[in-house]
From TrEMBL:
<protein>
    <submittedName>
        <fullName>Tetratricopeptide repeat protein</fullName>
    </submittedName>
</protein>
<dbReference type="InterPro" id="IPR011990">
    <property type="entry name" value="TPR-like_helical_dom_sf"/>
</dbReference>
<keyword id="KW-0802">TPR repeat</keyword>
<feature type="repeat" description="TPR">
    <location>
        <begin position="53"/>
        <end position="86"/>
    </location>
</feature>
<dbReference type="Pfam" id="PF14559">
    <property type="entry name" value="TPR_19"/>
</dbReference>
<dbReference type="InterPro" id="IPR019734">
    <property type="entry name" value="TPR_rpt"/>
</dbReference>
Length: 108
């Protein structure tokens, strides 16, 4: 993690705490070194900006990594629902593919 990048992202969040991309960028930066802090930002996004589709794939993957399969399943399913509502076929395909892989790995 680049400390100056992190400082810059935190400054962006402070300037505009209502922009979901600021939380998303912080989560993506933290996922490299601090999974629990990244999860904190993903969960803020899921709660405060449930329509921000990019969150679902990455949050679900992180739940998998943290051995939280029920949260991963729930997040994939919600993300697929949101992406269909938004007619975001690309996001839906990515989520569906990751979800199918998740089922293959966790349902054995």
């Amino acid at each position: 993690m680049n400390p100056s990048r992190l400082e810059q992202l935190l400054a962006f969040l402070k300037e505009d705490p209502h922009d979901p991309f600021n939380l998303y960028a912080l989560a993506m930066e933290y996922v490299k070194t601090d999974a629990w802090q990244a999860l904190n930002f993903y969960e803020q996004l899921l709660q405060q900006h449930p329509g921000y589709a990019p969150t679902y794939y990455h949050a679900a993957k992180l739940y998998e990594q943290l051995n939280k399969p029920e949260k991963a399943r729930e997040t994939y399913e919600k993300g697929m629902q949101i992406s269909l509502q938004q007619n975001n076929r690309h996001a839906h395909r990515e989520l569906q593919s990751a979800y199918n892989q998740f089922l293959d790995e966790w349902e054995e």
